[in-house]
């Protein structure tokens, strides 16, 4: 399949940005707690990450996933169903291994299952897809917010004990198994439908830009969608983050959508620009699966085995500096793969699995 450089470019930006929000949960998955600090730099980084990063990168990924499914579906006219399902099956299998063995915050299985749902409705009328997207996103989040608010569950300032920082390999596997099972229980009730709704937004954008030849005006993106997202997230943070952190995070998922849609639309509007041609970020997008898996392997190794006390003492500034280090390391890896004309190891593995499954069909 011919790659579309602008989509790879956005995907590259999104995958490189994921550690900004994921690292604290690789340190302490159950709470993502950060060491208290009164430094102004920590307060500023906390605000910027909450408003501009939390939920945004994952939302962009989900929208692009739905858009990419449509591109693959249109490309493989004869065997499109089998081709996409084989990819999703492999992705789901990798996600299960990743969640049980490395980090229970895995999103790959969710993407695989949501992708199968998208395939089942991809031929429906555009208006029906719009209604499905709205319902899939709003209903689960609305129900969960009501349950949290009525239950009176407030933000807990959980502090790690020095005796809790260490993990043996078997201890980590047991921890991952328990927590990933809990994530799988939530999957069919909340997260699956939310990601499904975001992917449907990607389907709608594909129809707008590729089928209907329509565009979302750049001015609308810059002066309406983006400000709505930032202002709404800031207000919700001021109202809920101190006492009802979970409610704020759920609202932040919703407020991430206008900003993410705006970013995707702006890049698609300028998709013929030379900026996106053979850029380092585009190659990062082409190897996004390898980068995503590398982030969690390296992050878990650092916090659980190499430097376990980091999870006690790391402030927002420390996490941000580590994120910068991760970004430099990943860009260096992508540059090496690019110069040697190699695929990332995960992309190479998926390609060989697809070839094997295709041979089995014949």
From TrEMBL:
Residue ranges constituting the DUF418 domain according to the UniProt record: 210-349
The UniProt record lists the keyword Membrane: yes
Keywords recorded for this protein, A-Z: Membrane, Transmembrane, Transmembrane helix
InterPro entries noted in UniProt: Bact_Transport_Assoc, DUF418
TM region positions: 12-35, 55-74, 86-103, 109-125, 132-152, 180-206, 218-240, 246-268, 289-307, 319-338
One Pfam family, short name: DUF418
Matches recorded under PANTHER family: INNER MEMBRANE PROTEIN
Protein name, UniProt field: DUF418 domain-containing protein
Organism: Pseudoalteromonas luteoviolacea CPMOR-1
């Amino acid at each position: 399949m011919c790659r579309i450089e602008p989509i790879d470019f956005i995907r590259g930006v999104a995958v490189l940005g994921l550690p900004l929000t994921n690292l604290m949960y690789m340190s302490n998955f159950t709470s993502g707690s950060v060491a208290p600090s009164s430094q102004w730099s920590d307060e500023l980084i906390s605000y910027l990450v909450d408003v501009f990063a939390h939920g945004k990168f994952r939302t962009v990924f989900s929208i692009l996933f739905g858009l990419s499914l449509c591109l693959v579906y249109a490309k493989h006219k004869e065997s499109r169903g089998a081709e996409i399902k084989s990819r999703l099956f492999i992705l789901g299998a990798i996600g299960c291994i990743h969640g049980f063995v490395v980090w229970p915050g895995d999103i790959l299985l969710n993407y695989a299952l949501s992708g199968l749902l998208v395939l089942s409705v991809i031929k429906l009328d555009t208006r029906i897809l719009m209604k499905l997207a709205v319902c899939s996103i709003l209903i689960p989040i609305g129900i969960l917010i009501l349950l949290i608010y009525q239950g009176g569950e407030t933000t807990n300032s959980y502090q790690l004990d020095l005796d809790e920082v260490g993990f043996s390999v078997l201890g980590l596997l047991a921890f991952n198994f328990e927590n990933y099972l809990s994530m799988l229980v939530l999957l069919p009730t909340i997260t699956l439908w939310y990601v499904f709704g975001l992917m449907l937004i990607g389907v709608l954008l594909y129809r707008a830009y590729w089928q209907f030849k329509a565009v979302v005006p750049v001015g609308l993106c810059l002066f309406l969608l983006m400000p709505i997202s930032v202002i709404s997230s800031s207000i919700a943070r001021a109202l809920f983050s101190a006492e009802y952190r979970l409610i704020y995070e759920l609202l932040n998922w919703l407020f991430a959508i206008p900003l993410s849609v705006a970013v995707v639309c702006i890049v698609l509007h300028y998709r013929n620009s030379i900026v996106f041609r053979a850029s380092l970020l585009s190659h990062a997008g082409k190897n996004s699966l390898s980068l995503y898996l590398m982030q969690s392997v390296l992050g878990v190794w650092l916090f659980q085995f190499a430097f376990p006390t980091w999870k006690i003492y790391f402030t927002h500034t420390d996490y941000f500096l580590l994120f910068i280090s991760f970004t430099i390391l990943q860009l260096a890896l992508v540059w090496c793969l690019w110069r040697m004309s190699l695929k990332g190891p995960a992309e190479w593995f998926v390609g060989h699995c697809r070839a094997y499954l295709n041979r089995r069909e014949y």
